[in-house]
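Pasting as-is:
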Amino acid sequence: MPPLLWPDKGGESNVHTNNAVQINNSERLTRLLETSTDQYTDILRLMETIAQSMDCNKLSDLTDTGNELLQKQQTAAATDNELMDMLRKQPEERLQKQIRDRYELLKKIMVLNKLIMPQLASTKSFIFNELQQIKTGRTAIKGYQQSPKKHGKNLKNSF
């Protein structure tokens, strides 16, 4: 693509400025792609941690890891929006390998997501049922408790 020519305030063409803008956009695009790949690598690591926690029945780790995963996903989504906007405006052929690598990483995340989501749903259901049973058990126990005897009530009221 030939550089765009436009007159600057002095009437001269501004080829060097346009080349600098193209280089800055290209560098920005490269950095965004690297950032996105790093973010999805972190997401994959967290999902693997969740899968291991599920396998080892370490349910206490799920809340913190799940919250961290949600935060990373939101950050990655913002980066992806900016990255996709830049790629639509100015596709970069030289970044095809990095884009392909990122795509493969996303495929791994999707496969792992399909594996752990049913497990998480069943664990959530199990925990909900356990909590309901505990709640019902407490209600039943309260029904069997005797009320405390109030000694001296009548004597106290007579004064």
